[in-house]
Amino acid sequence: MSCLGNIIWLCLAGLPGAFAWFFFGIIWSITIIGIPIGHQCFKMARLQLAPFGKEVIEVETSSLHFIFNVLWFILCGWELVLINLISAAAFAITIIGIPFALQSLKLAKLSLSPFGKRII
What we know:
Blueprint: H1 2-29, H2 35-49, E1 56-58, H3 63-91, H4 98-112, E2 117-119
Antiparallel strand pairs: 1-2
Helix pairs in contact: 1-2, 1-3, 3-4
């Protein structure tokens, strides 16, 4: 089911979100200080392409993760949250789209604070 879900997800909602993550990753990677943030953006872009069968767990957080999460949300996180919430609302209209809406909500939550998280 996860393979079929990922294929449908990629066609319907995965590409716009992944392009947004990738774009922000390139922007952040321009500066030396932003490279860790850009690296995390590239990992999240991969998750945005195929979220079914993957789980996000919280790892031990530090004050640096908190600072990165605050910077992230202020500068570009809210746009990604908005993209995922709009796609979740569109998917939730039909019964068949509910699993896709749940994945969109998972990604919206991750878009709020992506630092201190690990994808397994």
